[in-house]
Task: structure prediction
Amino acid sequence: MKQNEKISTAVIRRLPRYLRALEDLENSNTERISSGELSKLIGYTASQIRQDLNHFGGFGQQGYGYNVKDLKAEIEKILGLGTRYRMVIVGSGRLGQAINSFIRSYSDDFCVTSLFDVKEDLIGKEKSGVLIRSVDSLTEYLKDNPTDIGVITVTKENAQSVCDKLVAGGVRGIWNFAPTDLDCRADIPMENVHLSDNLHSLVYYINHPEQI
Amino acid sequence: MKQNEKISTAVIRRLPRYLRALEDLENSNTERISSGELSKLIGYTASQIRQDLNHFGGFGQQGYGYNVKDLKAEIEKILGLGTRYRMVIVGSGRLGQAINSFIRSYSDDFCVTSLFDVKEDLIGKEKSGVLIRSVDSLTEYLKDNPTDIGVITVTKENAQSVCDKLVAGGVRGIWNFAPTDLDCRADIPMENVHLSDNLHSLVYYINHPEQI
Result:
């Protein structure tokens, strides 16, 4: 990356898409790919792809294109993969459990070390090998177990206080599934997955197919 | 909406955010709000908010602002809420069940009529009151039960064939949670929730806090 260059959010959000395409290409034993071929695969223009990757140094060669394995490794490096991120999930209802099982099956880069809940009948149980602890012990747990990512799958009403505890406990990022926007220290990144927003956008396009 | 005006995706994606804010305002008995106050609540600029809403006719009054109840009703109308959307969820693992329970608790506008799975031991069971059927019966089910939205929570490998069956069966929109991009008829809207992309973006910002 060029020093001090601010990369737009849109570029950053396209990197994981590149990574998925490169994983598929590697799995199908493709060694190299041009920006034109990559464009056909993922639907961004070739010029967009070249521009995006140029922010980080380019990686392509005129007349050759991109080496799939190398480009994949570079993008993983840019994103910060290849190390292990410890996560806790607060809220161990169906969504919390779904995220827990997604993380387990998804990648060794991520590891859920504990689930938390308020429900007495859940505390002490295990889900996919991960213990559910009382949310009352969250602060102490984070003190003893440095954690990178806090996942919030509690109700809208409880989300802000959980977020505050996670941040005070030193997490480096928040993944929020509660259907509300949370206040958080400006240096702590937060990703929101607002399922209802997603569903509402879908419904809009169902009713306005001419706008697709 | 002005006739034949193409509204940008970015505007459409902000509408659900306005709706959430207006719901909160209505719940706290706020009758009216200025674009400036709304801006403070949701973080878009006041001018952005006015511009966004002007695409659909404005709804605000100089010196008064927006009537919360009316604006909420207008946005619901624009999105197409206030009617019932029938949904099926294909893939009744933890994620499918989480979506099912989210929909049930979320709003009467959406109703999951059936879950589908390939696993023999799940077929015939009920989850939150919804029957799990064999994915082999999906095509016939859709013929007998017109369905608005098909939700895909199966593996990457099975997602495209499920998508094809849903579209052939007449669904009007696809909500895809499988970690892959699907080919679909151009007039069928598709919303993707790619959890891994989301997590990767978060990791990037954890490693580049100066870029937040």
Remarks:
- DSSP finds eight helices and nine strands in chain A.
